[in-house]
Amino acid sequence: MSTGTLVQTWYMTQRQLMAVIRQPVFLAISLVQPVIWLFLFGNLFREVVELGGFGTTSYLDYLVPGIVVMSALGSSMWAGMGTLEEIERGTLNRFLTTPVSRNALMNANVVQNALGTAVQSLLIALLGRMAGAAFPGGAVGLLVLVVASMLLGTVFGALSNALGMLVRERESIIGINTFLLLPLTFLSSSFMAPDRMPSWMRHVADFNPVDWAMVAGRSALSAEPDWSVVLGRGGGLLVLAVVAVGLSTRTFRAYQKSV
Prior knowledge:
The chain is mainly alpha-helical. It contains twelve helices and no strands. The two termini are 25 Å apart.
C-alpha cells in the first residue's frame, strides 16, 4: 500500500471518527450491555469457579476478557449499517467521482471500527478492574487482549461492510447479524471454562474466531501466559483479518462497477 493511500485512509478515517465524536451518546449506549454482563453475570455465576477448570479463583477475572471480546464482536457486526447508510445518502457514490484511493474509501471504515473497538475494550477492562477483577498479566496482557479484540473487530467489521454492499437492505443485515451473534458467543468460552463445556461444543469452539480472541486474551492476562497459544490464536485472527479485508475490498470494487 502506497504512502498516498495510507494518508488518504487516515483522512477518511478522521472523517468517520469526527461523526462518532459528535455523538458520544452512542459510546455510552455501547457500554450498557457490557456493564450488565459484568455486574449481573459476574455476580450471578461467581461461585461457578468452584467447579474448577477456570484457571482462577475469581469468576470476574475469567469473565472480563470474554465480555471485551463479545463487545468487539457485537459492535463490529453492525459496521455494514454505516456503509449502507452512506450508499443510501449517496455519499459513497460522490466519493467515487474524486481521485481518492478506492482502498482508502473501504479501509477507513475498518480502521475506524478497530480504533473504536480499542477504546471500548479499554473502558470495559477499566470497569472490570473497578469491579474487582485482577489482571496478573499486567499491561502487556491487557495490550494483547485489546489487539485480539481489534483483530476480531476487523474480521467481522470487514465482513459486515461486504455484506452491506451485497444485500443493500437493513433488514437483511439485521437478520443475519441476529442469527450469528448468539451462536458465535455461546459456542465459545465466553461464560464457561472449556473443560466444563460439552465435548461437541468444545470442539466447535476450537474453530470459532471469537473463542480464539478470548483464549489469546485470557492466556496473556494470566500469571503465567502460554505465548505459543497467544501467538497461535493471534496469528489465526490476523490471517482472517487480512482475508476479510481483501474480500471487503473486492466486494467494493464489484459495487463500484454496478453504479
